[in-house]
Amino acid sequence: MSFPPNQRLSRSGAKVSINPDTIPAEALADAFSLAGSRESDQCCIRCGKTADLAHRLAWLECKEKCCLCDANAHKNSWCSRMKIFFPALFTREWFLERAGLGRWYIWEEEGVKIYQLVRDDGLRRLREREAAPSTASLLAAAVAAAAAAKRAPVLRFKASLDRALWGKRVEDKDEEMD
User: Fold this and answer.
1) What does the pLDDT look like over 145-156, one tens digit per residue?
2) What residue ranges do the domains of the chain occupy?
3) Which residue, 63, 67, 96, 156, shows the most beta carbons closer than 10 Å to its own?
């Protein structure tokens, strides 16, 4: 069963249009309190679902339905409901804090450019972090280094002893040949 993009089913089964008349501003702000592209956020700005950081950083490219209009009509773009119906929530400060857009709106050309820079930089840092050694591998390397450090004095002593003995053996052989 599908509904027009601006309507959804409520818990009672009735169609509900998502607009300022049906959703109090406080409820909308609470719903979007976990959304954003920061590491501390938990949900995607577009689909509203709990998502990993890579998904949240690329929220404009999210393939899920938009949580505001329940449609996929504006893939790779922002939902017009942000600007038209909910400008009191989606302010410049909100986009600065939640999406890292500086003082720009996502619907401004500069906002899109900043979004792309933030997304690309965040994804690059995420890949670098994933490629970094884990705590377990660093601990294993530290244990191996500590064990090698403990063996090092013994090995140096053995090497100097071998040199001394080898030198003595060479002297002994020289004397036997004479």
Assistant:
1) 777 777 667 666
2) 7-131, 135-178
3) 67
